[in-house]
Design a protein that fits this description.
Order of helices and strands: HHEHEHEEEEHEEHE
Radius of gyration: 17 Å
CATH superfamily: YjeF N-terminal domain
Distance between the termini: 19 Å
Number of domains: 1
Helix content: 25-40%
Shape: globular
CATH architecture: 3-Layer(aba) Sandwich
Strand content: 15-25%
Number of strands: 9
Number of helices: 6
CATH topology: Rossmann fold
Length: 234
């Protein structure tokens, strides 16, 4: 199976948007829908199932917002946790966050702050934040970091990742398990160990080397609408 580097995938995204004219929000919608379909496949049925989605403030989080919306529409009990300051969410992810909230999905924010966390459902434990009752649920969706992650994962995200890995709940990662270097397969301080990873358009080089195989679980490739012949450098 063909694999690609982060730069190659980013170039394909760029060309699809700038040269072919596919709106980025369409690619995000396709990605999130595919993630939701994979989640329903893992759950057997969405109706009545408890799904917790952890979203970062970037485009990977935007995919998570879309997936959460689709799952809620299918009857799942969905809660979404934004890791970081929601004011940093821009453009297409922000649009999808708005749609999610209009759909009535519970969206909470996790901030590392001297003040008590705002509507998080998390408890302060020392300097970090841990999920209360995170074992209660059927599936976790990891949409924290995408393939563009550089540098080691910092707190409180590292502790959240470690906590999720300890729970007896399957994890579905969006594009790449958060904390895994998609090129080298190295763990950047801490990485999700997913049962399944829905990756966009092509598997990434790091999935099959170093720690990659331990983190990605089953890899499912989502066709998000980038033309097959549109490869970097072609």
């Amino acid at each position: 199976m063909k694999t690609v580097s982060v730069i190659e995938m980013q170039e394909m995204d760029r060309r699809a948007i700038e040269e072919i004219g596919i709106p980025f929000i369409v690619l995000m919608e396709n990605a999130g829908r595919y993630v939701a379909e994979a989640a329903i496949s893992m759950l057997g049925s969405a109706k009545g199932k408890k799904v917790t989605v952890f979203c970062g403030t970037g485009n990977n989080g935007g995919d998570g917002f879309v997936a959460a919306r689709y799952l809620a529409e299918q009857g799942a009990e969905v809660s979404v946790n934004i890791i970081g300051d929601r004011s940093r969410i821009k453009n297409e992810p922000k649009i999808n966050l708005g749609k999610l909230e209009k759909a009535g999905v519970d969206v909470r924010e996790i901030l590392r702050s001297p003040r008590p966390p705002r509507r998080t459902g998390f408890a302060q434990d020392g300097p970090f934040i841990q999920r209360k009752n995170s074992q209660r649920g059927h599936l976790v969706i990891d949409a924290i970091f995408g393939i563009g992650l550089k540098g080691e994962v910092k707190e409180p995200v590292r502790s959240i990742i470690m906590d999720l890995n300890k729970q007896n709940i399957p994890i579905l990662s969006v594009d790449v398990p958060s904390g895994l270097d998609a090129d080298s397969g190295e763990v950047l301080g801490g990485a999700i160990r997913a049962k399944k990873t829905v990756t966009m358009q092509f598997p990434k080089n790091g999935f099959y080397i170093n720690k990659g195989p331990e983190c990605v679980g089953e890899v499912v490739v989502a066709d998000i609408g980038i033309p097959e012949g549109l490869c970097a450098g072609s």
